[in-house]
Write a structure and sequence with these properties.
The chain is α+β, with helices and mostly antiparallel strands. It is built from four helices and three strands, in the order H-H-E-H-E-E-H.
């Protein structure tokens, strides 16, 4: 996974001059896992600098938006994520976020979800 970890370098806005607090490091390690955190933070946290991304369509964002906003029955997508393979300088492959789009569910979708939840509750009784 490609992830750029940013911290305030100059200490402005509550930053601490680019250093991680122990609490931030512990929380990040808990969320990501020890190995993932070590991988993502090695080299000063600039993992994305050494990657060569595969090319993607120029209108990728538009296509992702069209996918989630489509009026096709049963589509019901709220998120569209494009994952892409990239190569590190050493030649390792990594899977990273390429692009994405999301939308809020409309009123009809919210009502249908609420109704489905009520039906499930009735079946359990």
């Amino acid at each position: 996974m490609v992830m750029k970890m940013e911290v305030e370098e100059d200490g402005a806005n509550g930053g601490n001059g680019g250093a991680w607090t122990e609490e931030d490091r512990d929380l990040s390690t808990t969320v990501l896992g020890r190995d993932a955190f070590a991988y993502l933070t090695k080299g000063g946290g600039t993992i994305s600098e050494g990657l060569v991304a595969a090319s993607s369509p120029v209108d990728l964002q538009n296509k992702l938006q069209e996918l989630i906003e489509s009026e096709h029955p049963g589509a019901g997508w709220n998120y569209a994520i494009f994952w892409q393979l990239s190569r590190t300088k050493s030649g390792d492959l990594v899977l990273g976020w390429g692009d994405g789009s999301c939308r809020e569910p409309n009123d009809a979708e919210l009502a249908a979800a609420a109704s489905a939840g009520n039906d499930d509750a009735k079946q359990r009784m």
